[in-house]
Specification:
271 residues, alpha/beta, Rossmann fold, two-stranded antiparallel sheet, 34% helix, UbiE/COQ5_MeTrFase_CS, EC 2.1.1.329, plastid, 2-phytyl-1,4-naphthoquinone methyltransferase activity
Length: 271
């Protein structure tokens, strides 16, 4: 299958060099080399809109569960995408990626955290008020529909999504909207579970969900929020389907990276 690929990325079997942003309390960052080879998977889940009745009392434990399951690796991985000045964090949830993005763009940049659930954004806003770094003031929380973004054309330097596209019903329309609001030459970075065509990888992934993710979630009282996960991964798009989706809506280049021993994946597409 012919695909348009990002010319500045290595082959899929190579380790992907990235930059980790490390910031001080004034949000002035410096860069350290970081190689994102195979490592423990990250976990950040959201319920689909039909399951959006979770209460605000349950939301604060999500980030703790993410850290516990991944030993903190999901926060390192998310830094792979942090390198822009005006960013939309799509399906932002309780804001953990938005806070990382704000540290990178600094107090003169702008981060928009968009989510379908008002309860999630309330938690994110509360967390923002408790944090001391000046750059966190540059985050704005917006309630909105992934398939009808409330922004003008060519508005953002970059878009990030952490485990959110899988739960959007009309993925084509959501990708079309991301293309519309991105500036020319800018990129979207989409991370989620990898729907592998390798039956061994799929079997390992389902064992992990059944024997690690759901039991740990149950310990936090969140079993109902996580038990649908396996079926949602089965219904998700494969590597080829995600790349083709991006190209079909107009992105000039699209490249998918398998990470976390192929249990996770990251699509990078350029407008």
């Amino acid at each position: 299958m012919n695909r348009a690929l990002l010319s500045d990325h290595p082959s899929q079997n190579e380790r992907l060099p990235v930059v980790v942003s490390v910031t001080d309390t004034n949000c002035h960052g410096f860069a350290l080399p970081f190689s994102a080879g195979p490592r423990l998977p990250s976990f950040r889940f959201r319920r689909s809109p039909v399951r959006s009745s979770r209460t605000s009392t349950a939301l604060p434990v999500y980030d703790n569960l993410n850290d516990l399951l991944s030993l903190g690796q999901h926060r390192i991985w998310k830094r792979m995408a942090v390198s822009w000045s005006g960013v939309l964090d799509f399906c932002s949830g309780s804001g953990d990626l938005a806070f990382l993005l704000s540290e990178k763009v600094g107090p003169n940049g702008k981060v928009i955290g968009l989510d379908f659930l008002k309860e999630q954004l309330s938690v994110a806003s509360s967390r923002q008020k408790l944090k001391s770094k000046a750059c966190y003031l540059n985050i704005e929380w917006v309630e909105g529909d992934a398939t009808d973004l409330p922004f003008s054309d060519r508005h953002f330097d970059a878009i990030t999504i952490g485990y959110g596209l899988r739960n959007v019903v009309d993925k084509y329309k959501a990708m079309e909207e991301m293309f519309r609001v991105l500036k020319a030459g800018s990129r979207v970075s989409i991370r989620d579970f990898n729907k592998s065509t390798n039956p061994v990888v799929s079997a390992v992934q389902e064992l992990m969900i059944d024997n690690l993710v759901v039991p740990v979630a149950s310990g936090f009282g969140l079993e109902d929020d996580y038990k649908y996960l396996k079926s949602s991964v089965r219904a998700f798009l494969t590597e080829d389907e995600l790349e083709n989706l991006a190209l079909d809506v107009g992105f000039s280049n699209a490249r998918y990276y398998e990470i976390g021993r192929s249990l996770m994946g990251n699509l990078v597409a350029t407008r």
